Amino acid sequence: MKQRAIKYLIGMALLALLGYNSVYFQPLDERLAANQKEVFDAAAYVESIWDTELAESYGNAPDFSQLLTALATDPEGTFEKSGNALGIGNIGYFRVKGEGTVTSVDENHVLLQVGDKSVEIETEFIYGNALRDASGLVKINDYPNTSDFNTISEEINARIRHDLIPTFRSSLAVGDRVEFEGAMELNKAHLNLQRPEIIPFTLKINP
Amino acid sequence: MTYFKNSLFPFLFLLIVGICASCQKQKESDPNAPKKVAVIVSTLNNPWFVVLAETAADRATELGFQATIFDSQNNTALETDHFENAISSGYDAILFNPTDADGSIANVRIAKRADIPVFCMDREINATDAATSQILSDSYAGCVAIGKYFVEKLNKEGKYVEILGLVGDNNTWSRSKGFHSVVDHYPGLQMVAQQNADFDRNKAMEVMESILQVHPDIKGVFCGNDGMAMGAYQALVAAGKAEQVMVFGFDGASDVVTSIEQGKILATGMQFPKLIARTAAEYAKEYFGGKRDFAQKVPVTVEMVNQENVYEYEAYGSK
Question: Which InterPro entries does the record associate with it (chain A) (predicted)?
Answer without folding.
Answer: TM0957-like_sf (IPR036215), UCP033535_lipo (IPR014582)
